[in-house]
Design brief:
globular; single chain; mainly alpha; 4% strand; 195 residues
């Protein structure tokens, strides 16, 4: 099979990402966000907030990570961040999915995408840290804008949000950390998030 055929098979297959729905609602609260919208939103965050990335961060690489990191959910499904049971086998499900979906590509592109996907998950490089910060900002902001509807529905507490977000927020630019803490505290005050 020619490389272009493999690439186009991959492109066609990842269109399925538009049908993977997340727990977060879109900002007007009318429906759940899909993974493709989430990935696009992260890319827009990356280019809009670029000045808050650590000096020397490759924003194009961050954008690649933002576009690649949730593709595995086509086969693995979206696992709610606060779902302890669902998160037990998440890594295994996502690894199988990654092999399957990135396996549609030729070996060099498959390895590049797998490397970026793993780098995002490991969160060690400047680019992965910034991409992970954005991946926490986006759903917290959507939950705030939708008056915490999904947080309330799932009984989510401030402590849970901080446990999942603080590791990356402490690495964020102080302006980002301060802004996000303000949103979280405001969510508690308004009853969107349990104290």
């Amino acid at each position: 099979m020619r490389k272009i055929d493999r690439q186009m098979d991959f492109i066609i297959e990842i269109d399925k990402l538009k049908n993977v729905f997340r727990q977060s609602l879109i900002s007007d609260g009318s429906r759940h966000e899909n993974d493709a919208e989430h990935s696009w939103h992260l890319c827009m965050l990356a280019i809009t907030l670029e000045e808050y990335a650590e000096e020397g961060t490759d924003i194009l690489k961050c954008i690649k990570m933002a576009l690649i990191h949730d593709i595995v959910e086509i086969y693995a499904g979206d696992t709610y961040l606060y779902d302890e049971e669902g998160n037990k086998d998440k890594s295994e499900r996502e690894m199988k999915s990654a092999e399957k979906i990135y396996g549609l590509l030729d070996e060099s592109q498959k390895e590049e995408f797998l490397r970026l996907w793993r780098e995002f998950d490991e969160g060690e490089t400047k680019e992965a840290v910034f991409a992970n910060i954005l991946d926490r900002i986006q759903p917290i902001t959507l939950n705030y804008l939708t008056k915490g509807e999904m947080w309330i529905k799932n009984g989510i507490r401030k402590e849970q949000v901080l446990n999942k977000a603080w590791r990356v927020f402490k690495l964020a630019h102080p302006d980002i950390s301060e802004y996000m803490m303000r949103i979280i505290d405001e969510s508690v005050k308004k009853g969107y998030l349990m104290p």
